[in-house]
Amino acid sequence: MNRIVTLDEFIIRRQKDFPFASGELTGLLRDIGVAAKIVNREVNKAGLVSILGVAGEANASGDDVQKLDLYANEKLIDCLKNSGECCGIASEEMEDFIPIPSLAPKTSKYIVVFDPLDGSSNIDVNVSVGTIFGIYRRISDPEGLCSLEDFLQKGAQLVAAGYVLYGTSTILVYSTGRGVNGFTLDPTIGEFCLSHRDIKIPARGSHYSVNQGYYLKFDVEMRRYIDHCSDMNLGLRYIGSMVSDIHRILLKGGIFLYPNTRKYPHGKLRLVYECNPLSFIVEQAGGKAITCQLERILDMPVEQLHQRATIAIGSPDMVDEMKAFVERYSAAPAMR
Ligand code: AHM
Ligand code: MG
């Protein structure tokens, strides 16, 4: 039997790769691991809603039942606030960021952004959902509270990013910029155990992932690329939970698209909470991530916390191919 490597052990071992590391990032990653276990416990109970109570009502014990995405948001905030390793948090569930005063004598240098429960429309029907997170080093004066500029850094400035997928098993995947590793939760011992070492995305895959129901709302170049995927006999897989779709693509190859539509002229997905962290992971695994207007996601200027972006992300050869289609069809209006 192979020796089990737990997430905590792995994170501590990796700290040695960073000569000037103070242990803060290590602590933060561990806090996120703890929050993930707490959220996982509640996600697993979601099917018992008819027994335990519906969100917005009181349950049998008279306690208010919370929506799961708000619960996840609260747990992540609690874990990060109490650790003292982080000086600010921004979440997809909150309008504004929360500055966290330092616990003297410590002055924390990291901020965390997250989408606590992505794909939350899938919870009621027992389909996988996920948590996405990104960690940046603060750029504001370390003596004061963190400020908006800390959260508006480009994705290329990420120090670490990851996701937790609450699926058939629960897996935490993260990168600190030196490859990507995945840890599956063993519920019997309550530990995330190293299960996917140094993940590399295949150059191509046999599936594409897009909400094909919006086909007629996409620009012509995107429609031509989707036609091409179908001509190539690629299979379509779309879960409607980005973490699940990206996880499949990371392991098996493929491309995920969320282009602009009439309803979402700038794309639907959030740059800070969804696109940047997942692009960081995919690039670290050898993949690519660009907007449907062909800019690298990680180089996109961030002007607002809840800014949206279009995205094409996944296997490098497939993203290049999509890019070629966009260049060809947007340059030749006569062919529309
Ligand atoms: P959410 O953050 O409100 O859950 O929305 C994000 C989700 C992604 O996980 C998923 O890829 C996408 O929205 C699905 O959107 P659509 O139903 O428009 O295809
Ligand atoms: Mg989301």
Describe this structure as you would to a colleague.
With 336 residues, the protein is of the alpha+beta class. It has helices at residues 7-15, 24-44, 49-52, 68-83, 148-151, 220-231, 242-252, 271-284, 316-331, and strands spanning 88-91, 98-99, 110-118, 129-137, 160-166, 170-175, 181-186, 191-196, 207-209, 235-236, 255-258, 269-270, 288-290, 308-309, 311-314. It folds into two domains: 7-196, Fructose-1,6-Bisphosphatase, subunit A, domain 1 (Fructose-1,6-Bisphosphatase, Chain A, domain 1, 2-Layer Sandwich); 207-331, D-Maltodextrin-Binding Protein, domain 2 (3-Layer(aba) Sandwich). The strands form three sheets. It has an eight-stranded mixed β-sheet, with helices on both faces. α2 (24-44) runs antiparallel to α4 and α6 (220-231) packs across α9 (316-331). The protein binds 2,5-anhydro-1,6-di-O-phosphono-D-mannitol and magnesium ion.
Topology:
Layout: H1 7-15, H2 24-44, H3 49-52, H4 68-83, E1 88-91, E2 98-99, E3 110-118, E4 129-137, H5 148-151, E5 160-166, E6 170-175, E7 181-186, E8 191-196, E9 207-209, H6 220-231, E10 235-236, H7 242-252, E11 255-258, E12 269-270, H8 271-284, E13 288-290, E14 308-309, E15 311-314, H9 316-331
Parallel strand pairs: 1-3, 9-10, 9-11
Antiparallel strand pairs: 1-2, 3-4, 4-5, 5-6, 6-7, 7-8, 11-15, 12-14, 13-15
Helix pairs in contact: 1-2, 2-4, 6-9
The structure holds 2,5-anhydro-1,6-di-O-phosphono-D-mannitol and magnesium ion (MG).
